[in-house]
């Protein structure tokens, strides 16, 4: 198994696999309300069986080369993650996303982890377009898209019904030539072999 350092603060990026379901569920329980403000991860993983099934769905996606999921550990504790929710290798497009528990917010962990993942998916997997879909109300995630050098392409007005509210969803993206031009994750060790 690989672990990629995300800096000098004890943070690492690692694969998140079905055998880690108990740790993942404990992480979701710690951040359930915070994480669930804009994303449905906490509603998908409510017990050990559902957490294991969710992680297995990503193991299946990895095997089919249609998605990936990585955890962010800080000082040995799972505190968040990044994922490729969808990967279409034939079209060269994918959708990236993230989540984080409140104890880890504001440290740049998601931005650093997403840089490693995007660098890998562009430079190793040949993706041409990386998308980032985010609720307009999710300022933290919008700011990550900006820090990643993504371009806001538009807003899908009231397209995402979640918790009784219809959210506007912003579409952000970065194209492979733009990623390379801005240096992307230059020098970052990518999650090869996953």
UniProtKB/TrEMBL annotation:
Residue ranges constituting the N-acetyltransferase domain according to the UniProt record: 11-172
Record keyword Acyltransferase present: no
Any Pfam family the entry gives: Acetyltransf_3
EC number: 2.-.-.-
Keyword Kinase tagged: no
Alphabetized SUPFAM superfamilies for the sequence: Acyl-CoA N-acyltransferases (Nat) (SSF55729)
Protein name, as recorded: GNAT family protein
Biological source species: Streptomyces ficellus
Superkingdom as given in the UniProt entry: Bacteria
Keyword entries, A-Z: Transferase
Gene Ontology MF: a single term: transferase activity
């Amino acid at each position: 198994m690989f672990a990629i350092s995300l800096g000098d603060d004890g943070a690492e990026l690692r694969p998140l696999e079905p055998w880690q379901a108990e740790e993942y569920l404990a992480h979701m329980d710690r951040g359930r309300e915070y994480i669930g403000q804009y994303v449905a991860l906490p509603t998908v993983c409510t017990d050990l069986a559902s957490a294991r099934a969710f992680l297995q769905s990503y193991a299946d996606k990895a095997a089919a080369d249609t998605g990936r999921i990585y955890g962010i550990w800080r000082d040995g504790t799972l505190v968040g993650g990044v994922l490729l929710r969808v990967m279409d290798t034939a079209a060269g497009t994918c959708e990236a996303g993230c989540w984080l528990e409140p104890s880890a917010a504001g440290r740049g962990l998601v931005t650093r982890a997403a840089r490693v993942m995007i660098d890998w998916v562009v430079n190793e997997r040949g993706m041409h377009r990386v998308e980032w879909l985010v609720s307009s109300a999710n300022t933290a995630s919008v700011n990550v898209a900006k820090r990643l050098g993504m371009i806001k392409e538009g807003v899908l007005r009231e397209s995402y019904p979640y918790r009784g509210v219809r959210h506007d969803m912003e579409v952000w993206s970065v194209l492979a030539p733009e990623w390379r031009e801005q240096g992307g994750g230059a020098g970052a060790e990518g999650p090869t072999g996953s």
